[in-house]
Amino acid sequence: LDREALSAWHQRWIRPERSTIIAAGAISLPDLVAALERRFGGWVPGAGAKKEMAAVSSSHAGKIYLIDKPGAPQSVIVAGHISEPGGRPQDLPMETVMRLFGGMSTSRLNRNLRLDKHWSYGVSGILMDARGQRPFLVIAPVQTDKTKESMLEVLSEIRAIAGARPIEGEEFASIQRNMTLRLAGRFETLSSLEQAGINLVAYGQPSEYYYDYGRNVRALAPADLNRAAATYVRPQDLVWLIVGDLAVVETGIRGLGLGEVIRLDADGQPIATGAPR
Fold first, then answer.
1. How far apart are CA 261 and CA 27, in angstroms?
2. Can you name the residues that pair with 143 across neighbouring β-strands?
3. Could you give the 3-state DSSP secondary structure of residue 56?
4. Is the dihedral angle over the CA atoms 30, 32, 33, 37 positive or is it negative?
5. pLDDT tens digit string along 74-115?
6. What are phi and psi of 202, to 5 degrees?
7. What pLDDT score does 274 carry?
8. What is the mean pLDDT of residues 209-225?
């Protein structure tokens, strides 16, 4: 990339007509406005580009991609699919679901692979933030000799949160407490307040979203969480990526029968393969 390419991108996308300024800090609104006028007062709006986001299909479902890392003591397992767009009413119950599933040290994923089986130092489940379709991901670094076994456990947990093992009883009560009792420290930094403002703008949330957050979480019922999980988590759409010592793990992975196995090079390009090593 040269300077002209970067400048052209900047002129095309960083535009005043599509910008919102969010500030958090020890400053009054009049002083902030005056400072912004000095810096941005001459920024002239115009006809900027509009981003068009095409829908992504699940055409890659049922595929397992392998990248060789000879001698690696761990394999990294990634299982994911494209899920629903952000900015929907089910965002709140789904945020609760994802924290229970893979967003804390005592999540379902971490209890299984770290606390119970000791195959991993930590596993996470993520529903990434986006206005368009959101990637649902499980990321599991595991010891090499438990790669295929860990894949089965990850699949089992994904199926469980999608409906095979509904959230109910003490597990539901516990995650409600976790979501609300941590609010006292959730917005203790300027960056966290700023991020809350960004979320309000980016996802079209009402201005009182965080003011009402605790009350709205406490109003959720198990059915709300399970309904959201069934909508957003789709085990049938999973795509797998495993990075590890293929001389050790490839045969076992192929034996699972989870889908077509494709080897990739370090740049993610398919490579021709013979029989598994």
1. 56
2. 74
3. coil
4. positive
5. 999 999 999 999 888 899 999 999 999 999 999 999 999 999
6. -65, -35
7. 55
8. 95
Which residues, other chains included, contact 213 with Cβ-Cβ below 8 Å and sequence gap of 6+?
92, 183
The pLDDT value recorded for residue 275 is: 45
Residue 225: alpha-carbon gap to chain centroid: 17
Taking every pair of C-alpha atoms in the chain, what is the biggest distance, in angstroms? 70
Task: Give the CA distances from residue 239 to residues 39, 64, 135, in Å, rounded to whole numbers and listed in that order.
Answer: 46, 6, 11
Sign, Cα dihedral of 249, 263, 114, 100: negative
Q: Which phi and psi angles does 10 have, rounded to 5°?
A: -60, -45
Dihedral angle over CA of 69, 71, 73, 79, nearest 10: 20
pTM: 0.89
Residues 216 and 241: beta-carbon distance below 8 Å:
no
User: Whole-angstrom Cα distance, residue 217 to residue 221?
Assistant: 9
For tokens 């699949």, name the residue: 155
* Structure-block tokens of residue 86: 């952000």
* DSSP assignments along 136-170, one per residue: EEEEEEEEGGGHHHHHHHHHHHHHIIIIIS---HH
Question: 67: exposed, middle or buried (C-beta count within 10 Å: 0-12, 13-18, 19+)?
Answer: middle
Rounded Cα–Cα distance for residues 136 and 142 (Å): 19
- Contacts for 230 with CB less than 8 Å, ≥ 6 apart: 162, 163
- Alpha-carbon dihedral sign for residues 195, 200, 201, 207: negative
Exposure letters 195-208 (e unless 16+ CB within 10 A, then b): bbbebbeebebeee
